[in-house]
Amino acid sequence: MPEKNEQRMLSSLSNALRILRSYSMDKPSQGITEIAVAQNLGKSTVHRLVSTLVKEGFLVKESETHKYRLGYSVLALSGVIFSTLDIYNEALPVVRKLVDTVDETAHIGILDGNELIYIMKIECTHHVRFLTHVGKRNPLYCTSSGKVLLAHQEPDFIKQIIENGLVKHTPNTLTNPNLLHQELAKIKTQGYATSFEELLEGVHSLAAPIRDYTGQVVAALTLVGPKQRMGRSKVAYLSKKVIEACQEISQNLGFYR
């Protein structure tokens, strides 16, 4: 019996975490039925789990819609993460300085499973901006920061990404494995990556690696902007600025050549 109770408790915990992870910028609030259908769970199970999450402050019920959104307990945990995340703390002043200098939006992204996830975003002053956000996920093979991270992974990992499929998001997306391998080798040699409308048409980006004290690439710093402002003629200037910022952050993390 104790073993069955433990299994039941672990199952409930897993389902509760699935519910929390189902929230996103595109889906900020959800109803019981909506959650049940999306997670393939019974409505009574979802109601019980949601009630517990509300009680603990992880979800809040909206009075008008009767749907549920993330609560302040989630925010409190994210605050703890960011306050203890070395990359974030050490990079923040450097990235702000970079954005002040070049006046383009900057992100820091890290590897999470087979995807890129953004842990920082500093906006530029231009009116034309991009609807990215902290926590947003993107593919590795068609973003500049993703390609930087991918270029420094083991061959088996790169092979897995290719086998999972290289979806063509725009006419410029690299979907040929041989060309992708060539691109990754070039990135390691030149020290930065570019993405010219490979994920979104009209959007250019440039990224370089951030290393920890062991020399391992742990993150990528990216500048992103419309192709009119970040054309190929600016690559030399922007790559120099991004690489310098990455070197400073890496030194802050204890990396010295």
UniProtKB/TrEMBL annotation:
PROSITE patterns for this protein: HTH_ICLR, ICLR_ED
InterPro entries: GAF-like_dom_sf (IPR029016), HTH_MetabolicPath_Reg (IPR050707), Tscrpt_reg_IclR_C (IPR014757), Tscrpt_reg_IclR_N (IPR005471), WH-like_DNA-bd_sf (IPR036388), WH_DNA-bd_sf (IPR036390)
An annotated Gene Ontology molecular function: DNA-binding transcription factor activity
Keywords carried by this UniProt record: DNA-binding, Transcription, Transcription regulation
Domain IclR-ED stretches: 73-255
Gene Ontology BP annotations: negative regulation of DNA-templated transcription
Domain HTH iclR-type: 10-72
Identification of the protein by name: IclR family transcriptional regulator
Classification lineage: Bacteria, Bacillati, Bacillota, Bacilli, Bacillales
